């Protein structure tokens, strides 16, 4: 019986993923430079930078999105994630508080988001989670 081939080979998958992210970032960079008003492309560029572990670049994008959309809770949430990934705990918590004040209320996502892992043991983060949990409508 012939062994089935997998493509890409499992040991090459991370390299292909990195190449794909680099390619996608390049396309999005061109789109954003040609159409700076395309906030969807800018937001996606920030996500691609984060997935590619280019956290400083992702932080720049998130700061720009907050500058352009200061009342959007998701821009503040994403900025909090970038700050947490860079180990900037206090600034990250400030942005999470801002996101919540603006209406962010997805406590399940907040608890599952790997970008916020560094905050899990911080009392201020735990207090935010408790506050969000207690403000949920009871079912």
Number of strands: 0
Structural class assignment: mainly alpha
Approximately how much beta-strand content do the residues carry? Answer: under 5%
| Share in helix | 55-70%
Cα-atom radius of gyration: 18 Å
Number of helices: 7
Instruction: Let me know the largest β-sheet.
Output: none
State the distance separating the first and last CA atoms.
55 Å
Order of helices and strands: HHHHHHH
Uncertain stretches: none
Oligomer: single chain
Query: Which whole number gives the mean pLDDT?
Result: 90
Shape: globular
The gist of it:
The chain has helices spanning 13-34, 39-51, 55-68, 73-85, 89-101, 107-112, 123-134.
Describe this structure in words.
With 139 residues, the protein is mainly alpha-helical. The chain has helices at 13-34, 39-51, 55-68, 73-85, 89-101, 107-112, 123-134.
